[in-house]
Amino acid sequence: MQNISKHISYIKSYFNIINVSVIKENRYFFYKKNICLNKKEALYIKGKNGSGKTTLLRLAIGLKKFHEGSILWYNSYSHTRMFFLPNDSNLNFKDITLIPIIYEQTSHLKFLVNLLSKHINEKFEKLSTGEKKITQLSNLIIYPSPIWLLDEPESNLDEINQLKLKLAINLHLKNMGILFITTHKQNLYKYSIYL
After folding, report:
1. What distance in Å separates the CA atoms of residue 38 and residue 177, rounded to the nearest whole number?
2. What is the Cα–Cα distance from 114 to 166, expressed in whole angstroms?
3. Judging by beta carbons within 10 Å of its beta carbon (0-12, 13-18, 19+), is residue 132 exposed, middle or buried?
4. One Pfam family name from the record (predicted)?
5. Mean pLDDT over residues 25-53, rounded?
6. 81: number of CA atoms within 13 Å, CB side?
7. Cα torsion angle, 143, 145, 150, 156, sign
8. Domains in the chain, ordered, with CATH?
9. In this structure, are residues 137 and 163 in contact, taking their beta carbons and an 8 Å threshold?
10. pLDDT for 115
């Protein structure tokens, strides 16, 4: 009876990882992991390299399969309204010249165009690692989503852009957003779990 009542209490939350287990190399990598978040909540995930921080994000977004358990978003199995930012500088698009076309369609992207203005016509591959990270983070503005999954988003950012990221995170949470973030920055931790 205790397992049933625990399961029911998770369903009352907005985003739920319920009794999820992952097997890797014939052993449990995660065993019956339970996480629930409501609107305006953030989960800061800490751990050593290889401890499963990125795996947890990939599970939540549906890019990694789990062996048992459930991942529910407001009582459904949909992953369509989440934004995942991996911790690398590879994007699906090769050229960021599409930004002015999008900008003409909506005024909400003024911030983005100002941020990227000197690189609008450059090839993405020519950008520095920090500039690539800024370009990735700009997708948070282009594709607004209630759930953000960010894998070490502050890496390779200068202090000014780390501050802008922190402000964007605070605004996201204030606007009823949910955040999963892996980070090494002490000042970003609010709620955290160790893996």
Report:
1. 9
2. 18
3. buried
4. ABC_tran
5. 84
6. 13
7. positive
8. 38-65+74-194 (3.40.50.300)
9. no
10. 60
